[in-house]
Fold:
Amino acid sequence: MSETSARVDATPWRPSRQPSLPGGAPLESGPPPQSGPLPSNPLLTTVPEPTPLVSGTPVPQPPEPAIGPVLQITSEDRIPLPLDPYMNSMDELKTLALAQLAQAGACMRALGFTRWKDGTVRNWDEHSFLEFDFYEYLDPEKVRAEGYPRRKSDPDPMARIRTAPDRAATADERGAFSGSAERTESGRTIPPGGCDGQAHAEVYGDMKLPVDVRSLSADSKTRAMMDSRVKAAVARWRDCTAKDGLNYSDPFIVLERTRQASGDGPTSEEEKRVAGIDATCQKDVNLTGIYKTVQIAIQKIQVAENHDKLTESRAIFAERVKAARALLEKE
Structure:
């Protein structure tokens, strides 16, 4: 970790809103490291149950999709998905986040906070713009030798903060940034929603997406994970790993719990041993292939049901990204 990012990550206060699209839909991104400043994704330690409640009543779940031939996945190459043509890229999401950060910084300095540096407060870090999926393919030979893959940070958004913050925000600055105060201590009027809220409005405008492609994608992942055919593959994986003494309910859990033991240091021999058993059993039952086959089937239905909305949303989003890039060029 660079000196810059280390200083930023030490900032003790962040706005409560996590990186999101208008309307509150969270960015679909990789979970931050457990030692990092953002809260861990709860899916790192628990498997979601398909029984959401509304007023105590289970919400009916969509029927499981019909599937054709099951994919046989034997490499780490990315599998194309039906939602890909409509997907808002992580680079675009970074552009919007950086534009909002720059506009908020300009607002703060206009309020008289001359020491304010872009990035002093933000609700994302270099781990927030990584793609993520359940049951990604693990090469047995590779993990036997190296252990589980480490999710690499993306230094690009941090490098694009023009001046690195080196201190925590003051209470006066926090009030102005978040809008929790009406006036600064010097008596200047804080815009409604604070500088961050004003910047959000400037960057996103009144953008209303007919459908959020990343919410659809996240839904396809969770539904695929809970699909009976995927659960059956996980059960076969459990039986397989139990023969070598592992006792975990899900591959996602064994990966996170085992990988944590090594952290960022040298990979332990125990991690390599466990990872080899895990990856071999996943490959034997073709877990990633079954999971991806189901996910693709779900996304085909999503595209068929939302094609026009997806096309319109993609165009609207692209315009906001174009405007955000223009704002950044003025800086």
